[in-house]
Amino acid sequence: MTDAVSRLAAIQARIAGRAGLVAVSKTFSAGEIEPVLQAGQRLFGENRVQEAAAKWPGLRVKFGGVELHLIGPLQSNKAADAVALFDVIQTIDRPKIAEAVAKEMKKAGKRLRCLIQVNTGHEPQKAGIAPEALDGFLRQCREDYDLPVSGLMCIPPVEGDPRPHFKALAEMAKRHGLKELSMGMSGDFETAIEEGATLVRVGSAIFGSRPQITR
Ligand SMILES: *Cc1c(COP(=O)(O)O)cnc(C)c1O
């Protein structure tokens, strides 16, 4: 058993079926991901379209039933590639992206589950729609673009207690009747599950630490 496979088992045991585990494989090679697929993991997250395009078509040939989530910011000129590659887009955060993804889904005859990323900490450097703009944006996604929005996603500030952010996101989802809540990472997924996460995104606690590059 590789280290990643034994860590995966430990994380799954801690989750204990309470939420879906998105194994975040960004920066790790196809060869490093394969043992985790062999162990039965099928939900994965990547944050860059190009990187995913280099790894996942090949892995999907070998392993059926993969569900790939885009968890990083999307540029509208990559929307077609993203729709072709991914099953779920967790980072819809502005009208231009909502419109581009909706258009590419129609072209491809494919409807991906979409989550709206909310910038719960109002951090200027971080992607996500401001919480106070969510109502209007959600209406726009549904009415203007016919985008299948099934939930919300957030990345709380690195510093401080993430729980209030998880609570706030859960409250927003409840208010809008959205079922999917993607929140919690390696350091705080149990807190997120306590606050209602249906998907947790865990990278380093499974695959090991990543090189210190900002992604
Ligand atoms: C990298 C990343 C994760 C995983 O982070 P870890 O701390 O390694 O678990 C989760 N969500 C997003 C959006 C990421 O970019």
TL;DR?
This protein is an alpha/beta fold and 215 residues long. The chain has nine helices and eight strands.
What topology emerges from the helices and strands here?
Blueprint: H1 3-15, E1 20-24, H2 30-38, E2 43-46, H3 49-62, E3 67-70, H4 79-85, E4 88-92, H5 95-108, E5 113-117, H6 134-143, E6 149-153, H7 163-175, E7 180-182, H8 189-194, E8 199-202, H9 204-207
Parallel strand pairs: 1-2, 1-8, 2-3, 3-4, 4-5, 5-6, 6-7
Helix pairs in contact: 4-5
Bound molecules: pyridoxal-5'-phosphate.
Task: Walk me through the structure.
- There is one protein chain.
- With 215 residues, the chain is an alpha/beta fold.
- The protein has helices spanning 3-15, 30-38, 49-62, 79-85, 95-108, 134-143, 163-175, 189-194, 204-207; strands spanning 20-24, 43-46, 67-70, 88-92, 113-117, 149-153, 180-182, 199-202.
- The chain contains nine helices and eight strands.
- Helix 4 (79-85) crosses helix 5 (95-108).
- The mean pLDDT is 96.
- The site of pyridoxal-5'-phosphate (PLP) has 13 residues, from strand 8 and helix 9.
